[in-house]
Amino acid sequence: MYDVIIIGAGVVGAAIARKLSRYNLKICILEKEDDVATGASKANSGIVHGGYAAKYGTLKGELCGKGNQMYAKLQEELNFGYRKAGALVIGFNEGDEKKITELYDNGVKMGCDDLEIIRGERLKAIEPHLNSEVKVALYAKSVGVTSPYEFTIALVENAITNGVELKLESEVISIEKLPGRFIVHTNKEDLETKYIINAAGLYSDKIANMVGTYDFKIIPKRGQYVLMGKDQGNLVNTVIFQVPTDKGKGILVTTTYHGNFMIGPNAEEVSEIDDVTTITETLKYVIDTARMSIPDFDVRKTLTTFAGIRATSNTGDFIIEESKVKRFINVAGIDSPGLTSSPAIAEMVADILKNSGLILTEKNDFIPYRKGIVIKKDNNFHGKVDDTDKAKNIICRCELVTEAEIIDAIHRNIPINSTDAIKRRTRAGMGTCQGNFCKSRVVAIIARELNIEEDKVTVRGNSNSKPLVRAEINLIRKMK
Fold it and tell me: What is the pTM of this model?
């Protein structure tokens, strides 16, 4: 019998697993896909928001600020990729300035001490390429950027190192309530546990329904993005937001942790929970709106477009509580700023478990550290294609990914067998040519290392993610 089963291996389930792996508990993570971080945790902005970003008095507000402060230490321990960038929330008129002042006041209530309202030359010094029509901005120094899928992978790898079991391609079919325990029926097996953590994201209301709780509903909201090359990364130094609306934080302009120029997302309700289609008309709106922040980016440098689905709750706030069913804990409705809040959410869940009667005894041999997969290349790196030294043999020319990095990723403690799984861990295929050079080489390495035929190596495993539509990318590149 398990002490705790966590349903869902997105960033929230991963953070909870890593936190609970500190204790003498038997823990299992169930994930219906063939890898971790295949849902919203791979398709979001990657922003570590400041404490001002969610409303004072809400769980979002409380946990966003706490989570933000935890990232520096997590980066030291887990090596997933995080840096402070700062952020500007920009305004063009008196109405915008009023909203910016409200954000500032909200941040002060939250205890933020990094906020300034700035104008004029100060704005231009921070962001030289900013639209000259911008009159005022909220400057938040604590905002950061991270690689959300690499963060999730790092959390799960470290949790497994500390004794957590991960069961992939294990979809929960039903849950049986018995005195003092649950039987979780999956598509593969039946598992017994004392506690269940429902961190199933878009499916969390359906999982809750399985034990007879109907207290909330998940409303799927799609956000679409345009990702461009690193050669335009010099256009922006911070994360630039426009003043938020009732639909969310609006279209942002940023560089990713790895330096790509990125814009988006919009926010739209969708009827299909897995509809990650990108729509040309919507992407044009994203581009036109982003130009109000940074006018001079070149859409001809577009590498790809993508969309993610956010698990928004009808309650308007995070749902983190023991349900009316004893020992069944809902962690649901974790939309923005969920990535930022995830380590603080994990702390809160541990407290809920303790208050519910689970004994949390810390291990003496907990290992907090995890070695990164991506090796940072500097001027001392002299790799080349077809080098006999695996540490210098370049497989992906665009991102300088070596054979040694790919082999390392394959033999970590999360089993993988697809090129997309390698892409998320090493960036092979994320560069300018989008895998045209390296994909066949990656396939060959996976097949060799796993001793399988090359035609058994898939692109996306059993994931629901949609393939890139090249015709759409060509249309985007022709936009003004």
Answer: 0.96
